[in-house]
Fold this protein.
Amino acid sequence: MNDCLPSQTPLWQQVESAIRATVSSFGYSEIRTPIVESTDLFKRSIGEVTDIVEKEMYSFDDRNGDSLTLRPEGTASTVRAGIEHGLLYNQEQRLWYMGPMFRHERPQKGRYRQFHQFGVEVYGLAGPDIDAEVILLSAALWDKLGLRDHVTLELNSLGSNEARAQYREVLIAYLEQHIDKLDEDAKRRLYSNPLRILDSKNPQVQEVVANAPRLHDHLDEESQAHFEALKALLDSVGIGYRVNERLVRGLDYYNRTVFEWVTDSLGAQGTVCAGGRYDGLVEQLGGKATQGVGFGLGLERLVLLVEALGTQAPAAVDAYLCPMGEAAERQAFVLAQQLRQQLPGLRLMCHCGGGNFKKQLKRADKSGARWALILGDDELAQDQITIKNLKDGSQATVAMGELAAHLEQR
Ligand code: ATP
Ligand code: MG
């Protein structure tokens, strides 16, 4: 679990504002849920035989002996809240959330125990148009952050729950014939979650999987049409994709559309954003049947990507006010407040603690400010102030009354 230090928060804020601007431009509404939920909620939604539930959850008994879990992802909580507050049945909801998630994993670059996700969840819409919209929304975020050329979209359809169940039987029968080549993980999942074996990273298992019956040969007609329509919509807005039939996603609740945005720039942790359709989940968690589709996006990986592109975090300060001497200090305190009121966009830091000219200018430099505003005895006497450009060293003295206009212009 990491501290996010002042040197890093500007980059985070930049990413977070890009996210807020994107969801706002699509008209989505924010939902905030608690960080702890009942353990049972995640077991029932994510699935008992998944990495998250088997090995990654932070679970504990509270003082009443109830088992609680720090949320490992956002979908289960959103569905729980939606059911509890009657937001889902017979309604359409386009929601987003952002916040910390917790998984007990081996920490490494791009993989942490407390990490942050931004996600969207849409309810009550069945068609491929909303799947395409959700993907378009994520693409709009890449555009805002200048990342579009650094991520690629992988796309798949898992078919209806019935088609998937049928394929499952065919797949199990095939894998049983090659059981000697499966590793421990694959053997354990053979009957509980065989589709997950399709995206095994073990080369020997991959060899077996390469000749396995294909999921797409078992897709039901409706799912096929849904998938074709989705691809056509993505084509129409110029979003490129690669159909990856091995893409099944780690969580149990997906049906039909699944997708991932992946990158080569982050080593092993290549998935930046992942999601899909989950039409059965609301009912499974006790609500009335309601379609769902959404994605989760890891903010740490996004920040790493933006950093890798060499994006400079903006400085926190535009101007640094340096008063020389007691009279100037008193004046500066008032002046700073006036400027902040006159120029609400200005980020102004006022020097505190006295000291000579050299010391104050050093502080001004360190603040990252573009301008030092120097108020000494001479300036005070003539009701003027000196504006020094800290980037190129040039300076000019202007009448106090014109300072705000000068700053605004620059
Ligand atoms: P992975 O295959 O990398 O473990 P996942 O399938 O477990 O990912 P999801 O549950 O789909 O991931 O979560 C969505 C996104 O959240 C991921 O694509 C990733 O960007 C991010 N994410 C997941 N786990 C972590 C983690 N431990 N640390 C940082 N980011 C994470
Ligand atoms: Mg994982």
